[in-house]
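FIELD: query
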Amino acid sequence: MRYLLIIPLMLVPAGASAQTAADQLAKTVQETQCARPDRALIKVESDGQTSWTSQTVASAKYNRQVKGFNDCTRVYVVNANREITRIRDDAQIQLDQMIGSATGRIHRIERQVTDAIESVKAVNGIASVAPSGPDTAPDAFPEAECKMPDQNLLVPLRRARDNAARERLYDGQLKAYENCMRGWIAQAKSEIAQIKRDAEASMKLVTADANRQILQIWDTILEAVQQADLAEKEQANALASLKQQLAAAMPAPSSSHETETVSASETVVSSDVHLPRSADQPTGEGDPNAISCRARQQLPGSRLLGPEICKRNREWASLNKEGKNLSPDGLKITDAEKNRTLNPQTCVRKTAIPTGDAIVICSQGNQ
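FIELD: result
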């Protein structure tokens, strides 16, 4: 089963250079380098009437200003296009990483579900099991812990006239095993749906930020091109006044935006099972065999959140007892804040031999 996360990323046909679109491109380039031509050199307002002049010293200066402004704007737009390409590429890299991470976790849980289904089939004599082994990663979803029925109950006892009681006991164990596996599979599918929702939420943040930057750059490009278009039209008006005819004006630039979407695939159907979730690391209280989940936590140096982590209560209790915690990305076991407070690092300064360089060696207080 393949799960695809649908997030639209706008593709605007132009782009710019990084700080902010307005700050870096519009202000730095346009105000200091792309000086707009002084239309007062060719446009005169008198008694409510507008007149245009051409072939004068002032109009020649205006024409030089227009050429400089157009040349500067051309460079400005090229740089803007490069920046939009960079923003799109960076956003796509982040989206690909999120899709890969979520899809990988989903596939791992799916493998666990497949193994569980095959185990049930094997107990019923429908198929043989070739287990692929448990998922031992720190962020793994807990394996099913359902007690299999005792196959020995199906072996008739010697000299026993009736083995019906043993068979009924076996049937009861089989039913309990199947119910347990069915409940675990429902929990696993619920977690798959949660992973998909979490990934889509993170991807929307990245996409929205990229689109905001692209549209901001596009707005500054439109403004620059409109100014260049206005200057050309004013030149045409001045020339028309001299030649007594109208000059064709350059059409306004298109402001259409193209939109690209990540193609869609199969959708996860969420089950009605809701796993217990807490904002901080679960304490492990309650049924030791029950599954509890830690809500997503913010990744270091990022606005994004790591994955939801689910474990059995006895595993959470063991981590808390040892003063340990899982990192926000769920890939490492780290010291909990309480453990670091009670056992701060001790650092000493020593001299390295034979170089004589000063070095600092730190160790945890309880070591």
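FIELD: remark
The two ends are 48 Å apart (CA to CA).
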